[in-house]
């Protein structure tokens, strides 16, 4: 009964309890909100602390503090900071890869690849590495044999490796509306179907073929209408970008090999057919195997699986084993490596023709072709971007003329590439050059290739171990026999950066005339190039060889006179007598190992801080006969490149292990003497090319930025000649103000660890050369640490451009492992969760080009419906059949591997021979 009576009371009681429950709920909600607010406040304060920590440190610094103590304290503060907590603001400070995994809809991607050109390196590398690992497991699980039977072979198409989306704007037209070669050459980027040239009866330009004449592997609907197979005449830089993309799509040969770099060695695979990963089935196989993976494109994981399954290949010349404390981490170059007996190489190849590898056959053909030509009959082997220049663009004069870009991989002028307000052209330049030299040095060290930093790059190394702030190219040198082996092994190969660092890839192109070692007509001073596939910038590679060059720099002429005076008899007369007696062969001289070479004092022991570049001083002497000049040069042990830069053996060897841009490198033994010979005051001039070198920060700063801080302190500017003295008088105050500038702070944050090591290296070297043996152990320990490759000190370029795109779309940048694909950029693609039932509509193309290069109609150039003049075509017509060291042609129809080439017909009556394969 009591229970029954309770029921009627329950609602009333419950009614009284509701407010209490609400209070509890509200209290709980309030507590949660307070915790959330506290957490957010703490995080914001943490971020605020991170943002202001540097400023607070600067504010607390007394002007009486010494600059050295301030910099040391500031470096200690930076080492403990984690700027990734505010990645959206400090994204340019971050060096590691971001968003290394890509989540995308596999069906959408496949459908869009049928309609237009898309590129994301994460997909390409993931698909290829997955396939390569399985191929290694099948044919070469130990990665030790390099025979034809155990080579890992892969399909290849430039469509998978380069962003060709600039061509997409032409794919929206019907086949009849697409521009022909004459349309694109005469109308350029202003082409539209209503301006189409009609009634074209013959081929307009031999560097380009229309779709109707194209017989290559690319589907017609992915061709823009025109197909460049060589470099055309001079045009604007906007047009040259389109030409380059078309060439890679339609005319470029596939690489001879692809080499993947890793921490422990390399993996080399061999492209054998011109097919995309979509057409060959590689993509479909990868998707099937990884269909349950949440983040399907993960190149780092695929690389990790490869390295765990298949051991990396080690080189014959293993610098890790050779460079030890006992030899002061130096490598003595065999003196024979500077003598090029290419005739013996040819003879050796011809004696075993039946057993030659593909690379050896190509190398033999190149040597024989080069040998057949005279010095003055050589055409230019390398082709840069040929622009209408001087020229103006959007109201200003162009700063670049195209000479620092390879025409095949040109992606626009860097100085005209500003994408949006978040973009920094100078930062992009630094990223490109840093990644290029870092990868080159990793590649040469891992492969046992002897090369050393040269010319302006050596001077920039001398100052701070970095590339100059204003540089746009890099120079390295090799002994001629090392260059010969390099060309044999790596010509027309593509080198892929260690994917744990970034997505860079670089093409090696070796010149067609290696047997010619003198200046000749001056068109072939460079022997090879290491070219950035994504933009066309390159490293110049030159070989040093013993030659019969008669004229010498004055310093070697003086030395030769000293030898002649001190000799009991004229060396040349003695050599002639020996030759008559049959003791000499081929006009060579005394054994250089026993020559009376007068050693020069090691200039590194002196303070030779002298520098600004000057021309090499050549003594005006009557030219010696060839055999006498060769004998003299061998006696002096001097070697030269094809631009008449001379060096002695003692200046070069043994090369020293050092570090540049965070990677192990070699520099000449007597680098100070080398630099002094090329520069008159470059080792001591702190003001150069509108930049001031600040020893406290250890890098070059634009004068305009320094001058701005000077005005803040003094109220007026100072003369350039007085700028350094003003800085010294206000050293700490100037440092404080400069580091408040985000650009200076970023540069110091990125470089201080690398430059501090370089500075200490140079200090120790100077002390040891001065007789302080107590520093030798510290020096050896420091140099030994260079053998361990350091990570890049700047962002990956693809990451940088990807994040610019996100900022343009007002997205917050987040530090994370993965991202979803985007539809906002031509280089990316749309993600949807449901499978695609029909192809998506193609977006109107051309936006990327306009974003990158601005209003295309503002380029001032003269348009004409007439064919290019002979002058415009002179470079591409010089020799249409010259083979390079891959066995292919320099111009005209290009060859990649023997038996594989891009096929087109030059007119309707020449379609049979064009389909033949190369011999």
Strand content: 5-15%
Ends apart, CA distance between termini: 109 Å
Radius of gyration, CA atoms, in whole angstroms: 32 Å
Tell me how many strands there are: 23
Tell me roughly what share of residues is in helical segments.
Answer: 25-40%
Morphology call: globular
Mean pLDDT: 82
Q: Biggest sheet, open or closed, and with what strands and sense?
A: 9 strands, mixed
Main-sheet strand order equals: 2-6-5-12-13-14-15-11-10
Counting helices, strands and paired strands, the structural category is alpha+beta
Q: Low-confidence segments, ≥5 residues, pLDDT <50?
A: 1-18, 39-51, 580-621, 823-919
Q: How many distinct helices? A: 29
Region (Disordered): 857-919
Transmembrane segments: 24-42
Membrane topology: Single-pass membrane protein
Main location: membrane
Q: What would you say about this model in short?
A:
GO terms for molecular function: transferase activity. 39% of the residues lie in helices and 10% in strands. With 919 residues, it is of the alpha+beta class.
What does this structure look like?
By secondary structure, the protein is an alpha+beta fold. It has a domain at 687-785. The chain has 29 helices and 23 strands. Helix 5 (121-139) packs parallel to helix 10 (299-309) and helix 22 (703-714) packs across helix 24 (731-739). It is globular, with a radius of gyration of 32 Å. The chain starts with a helix and ends in a 42-residue tail after the last helix.
